[in-house]
Amino acid sequence: MIRNMTDCATLHNGVKMPWLGLGVWKMKEGEEVGQAVKAAIRAGYRSIDTAAVYGNEAGVGKAIKESEVAREELFITTKVWNADQGYDSTLAAFEESRKKLGLEYVDLYLIHWPVKNKYKDTWKALEKLYKEGYVRAIGVSNFQIHHLEDLMAESTVKPMVNQVEFHPYLTQADLRRFCREHQIQLEAWSPLMQGEVVNEPVINELAQKYGKTPAQIVLRWDLQHEVVTIPKSTKEHRIIENAGIFDFELTAEDMARLDGLNKNHRFGPDPDNFDF
């Protein structure tokens, strides 16, 4: 059972990845992202998730440096953007991300979206980075089952993580099952439905029952499904609040009620119909 902030999922290569992290999507480069990262680290978070396309890797790197927490205690994720996909261009993009972050290595490097006819070459670049020790783990983001099968048919290293949109309106049961069977750790982006959790009656009802916020109910649901979660907030009190999910447990019945909210609704793009 996941009981505290320091608990980690163990990826199939043995690397430990915190169950809870801070996502920094849409955070402004500079002070906004820097303050959020520092607040999260102060609150006990050790995992930070950024991406080249977010345009805030330098701010994340600066905040890491200023936080004075030992590098090996942190788990830093970034992603290669669609326009940079391909073998050589991915290697160049990684080097640029690494320099912006100011890090010797990255803990997890992901392919941001499954760009057709490119993601296999991109993956070969990730395998090279992994084998050379520049990244401790490699994975994908927004990959459906057919993308994963296609990728794994020709790869020498299996993805360790698949980061996808996951929340009570999009429970992705088949994908979750597939990833579990293949030892690919599922990770949730937009776990709080871009703020819509507060408008769902069942979630509010459970929040009252457990004396928790709607966000805490959903983040706990993630953990009990063994899905890594990276809620985004720029406000320190919310960052602290989002971490208050280790002192209670949802019953099997309440987990099932949340599962029952699924309507296959995406707040973000559909990986199969995305204009890459």
From TrEMBL:
Domain NADP-dependent oxidoreductase: where?
A: 20-262
List the keywords (alphabetical): NADP, Oxidoreductase
| GO MF term (any one) | oxidoreductase activity, acting on the CH-OH group of donors, NAD or NADP as acceptor
Q: Which CDD domains match?
A: AKR_AKR5G1-3
* Lipid metabolism listed as a keyword: no
Q: Which residues form a coiled coil?
A: none
Q: Where does substrate bind?
A: 112
Database matches in InterPro entries = AKR, AKR5G, Aldo/ket_reductase_CS, NAD(P)_OxRdtase_dom_sf, NADP_OxRdtase_dom
Key word Transcription regulation present: no
Q: Where is this site: Lowers pKa of active site Tyr?
A: 79
Q: What SUPFAM superfamilies does the annotation carry?
A: NAD(P)-linked oxidoreductase (SSF51430)
Q: Where is the active site?
A: 54 (proton donor)
Family assignment from sequence similarity: Belongs to the aldo/keto reductase family.
This protein's name: Aldo/keto reductase
- Species, as recorded: Lihuaxuella thermophila
